[in-house]
Structure to design on (566 residues):
């Protein structure tokens, strides 16, 4: 009986299908049940099957005689097992033959009422007890199962997996996480109905595999599945089985499912933590299209522990000043001699126990976990305070550029935050440059363009960082509100060895000229690179040729007019 059937039963009388070829028996049962049930009578098995097909979703209980003409009760029990609408309806057999009970139980009957019906109150009580037990069971199943795939949901899965541990105490078990690559795009491009078919197909394969290996399966997110089963030496057979089923859905759509396996899981560990490890292994190959199955290892565990340590320590690191802001000078090279024109603020982390931590490690980590905004606001304020100090001490304005992540660009209060910062430190927005990576412009064009336009209207200058590292159509490029293009450093590397690179840089310089914005090139290290960039029309360069990123006190040499030797 479906959930609709249960609602029907609660809002109205329950519906009982009474099947008996003797009219007097049907009438007698109808009289016994009439206060609690609406009665649907049938005189033989064939009529009963017709009513089950038509009204199966509404029927709460079937009272079934065994010996009938046309189609017997035994035949009804056999056929009901193949009928989706009737499969879950509890069946009470009406018989005076005790020998038939065992066979009926094997066919799915749940109780018996012996003829003749000499105790009406007992008959009604038995029927009510059966119906209530089945309704309770269905409520439990509805709570514990994912309605789309029929697999367990996360909470019940953990509970039943723990029970499986106790049942198989001497057996090694694997925790497996499976995720579908780019499932959101799959839904968008092929429709939600197709996405649901994919999820049901995966659920069916996992349910079958789990049953074969004393396991359990769950759907724990929109496209995340968990499997807990006896230890397997390889999950390649399961991967192939999944691939075959998914290929049958469509020849045109290729679906990649990633596996993360925590093998021979430590049973002393909480179940949730075991699957955290499996998911970590799955996530680690998100961008590795050569690998579909990844096994959790000591190395992965060490990286995971290290990452967790960094995330936990970030708040204290900000409070205690472990994050240092370094400044790398930018030089205008359009004249005969390079002239200091601005600087980029770059964060460095000196951890009291872990030592120097590369920005290439902690910045992507904080971006993935939503912590980057807290760190960026700290850096933005430190840079503004430093600009104010230099202005007061040296009487000059040194524009500083700070990095703005794509996460922050979705904050509707970002402009107010920067405006408050300028007011606090008595700075002009024109002195404060915002570096936004090119890839951010391709994510949500309308929202990003609106935010960047608002910042520029407020007087802030915007650099498109890493220009050329991603993809922007020419139409998009001319729509982008920017005040400078900063070229990806890959263009500079080996520039003197590649004629193609030199030509690309000339084209980009000309393009910037058409847009009416200056070009900045970072990563410049050698004299030949400086000469070539200057001849190509580059405006500003940044890199080790002039200086590495420096703490504020060392950077002050450039403000005073000195230049670090390269």
């Amino acid at each position: 009986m479906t959930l609709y059937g249960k609602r029907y039963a609660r809002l109205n009388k329950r519906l009982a299908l009474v099947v008996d070829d003797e009219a007097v028996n049907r009438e007698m049962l109808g009289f016994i049940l009439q206060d609690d049930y609406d009665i649907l009578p049938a005189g033989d098995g064939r009529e009963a099957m017709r009513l089950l097909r038509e009204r199966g979703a509404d029927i709460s209980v079937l009272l079934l005689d065994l010996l009938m003409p046309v189609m017997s009760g035994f035949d009804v029990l056999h056929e009901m097992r193949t009928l989706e609408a009737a499969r879950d309806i509890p069946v009470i057999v009406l018989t005076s033959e005790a020998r038939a009970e065992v066979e009926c139980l094997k066919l799915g009957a749940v109780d018996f009422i012996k003829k003749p019906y000499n105790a009406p109150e007992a008959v009604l009580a038995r029927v009510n007890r059966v119906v209530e037990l089945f309704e309770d069971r269905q409520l439990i199943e509805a709570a514990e199962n994912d309605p789309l795939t029929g697999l367990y949901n996360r909470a019940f899965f953990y509970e039943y997996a723990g029970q499986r541990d106790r049942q198989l105490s001497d057996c090694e078990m694997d925790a497996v996480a499976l995720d579908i690559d780019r499932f959101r795009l799959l839904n968008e491009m092929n429709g939600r109905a197709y996405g649901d078919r994919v999820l049901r197909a995966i659920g069916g394969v996992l349910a079958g595999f789990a049953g074969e290996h004393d396991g359990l399966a769950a759907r724990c997110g929109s496209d995340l599945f968990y499997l807990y089963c006896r230890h397997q030496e390889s999950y390649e057979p399961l991967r192939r089985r999944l691939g075959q089923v998914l290929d049958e859905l469509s020849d045109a759509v290729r679906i990649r499912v990633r596996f993360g396996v925590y093998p021979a899981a430590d049973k002393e560990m909480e179940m949730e933590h075991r699957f955290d490890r499996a998911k970590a292994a799955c996530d680690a190959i998100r961008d590795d299209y050569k690998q579909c199955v990844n096994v959790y290892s000591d190395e992965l565990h060490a990286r995971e522990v290290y990452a967790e340590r960094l995330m936990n320590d970030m708040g204290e690191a900000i409070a205690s000043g472990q994050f240092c802001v370094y400044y790398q000078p930018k030089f205008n090279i359009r004249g005969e001699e390079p002239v200091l024109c601005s600087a980029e603020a770059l964060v460095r982390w000196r951890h009291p126990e872990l030592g120097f931590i590369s920005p290439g490690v902690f910045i992507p980590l904080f971006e993935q976990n939503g912590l980057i905004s807290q760190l960026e606001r700290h850096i933005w304020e430190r840079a503004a305070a430093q600009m104010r100090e230099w202005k007061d001490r040296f009487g000059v304005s040194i524009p500083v550029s700070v990095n703005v992540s794509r996460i922050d660009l979705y904050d509707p209060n970002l402009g107010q935050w920067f405006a408050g910062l300028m007011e606090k430190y008595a700075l002009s927005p024109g002195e404060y440059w915002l570096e936004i990576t090119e890839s951010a412009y391709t994510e949500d064009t309308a929202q990003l363009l609106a935010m960047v336009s608002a910042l520029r209207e407020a007087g802030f200058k915007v650099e498109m960082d890493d220009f050329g590292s991603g993809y922007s159509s020419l139409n998009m490029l001319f729509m982008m509100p920017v005040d400078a293009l900063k070229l990806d450093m890959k263009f500079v590397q080996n520039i003197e060895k590649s004629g193609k690179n030199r030509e690309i840089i000339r084209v980009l310089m000309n393009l910037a000229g058409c847009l009416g914005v200056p070009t900045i090139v970072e990563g410049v290290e050698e004299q030949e690179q400086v000469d070539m960039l200057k001849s190509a029309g580059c405006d500003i360069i940044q890199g080790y040729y002039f200086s590495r990123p420096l703490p504020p006190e060392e950077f002050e040499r450039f403000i005073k007019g000195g230049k670090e030797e390269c």
About this structure: The radius of gyration is 35 Å. The domain at 3-144 is CATH 3.40.50.2300 (Rossmann fold).
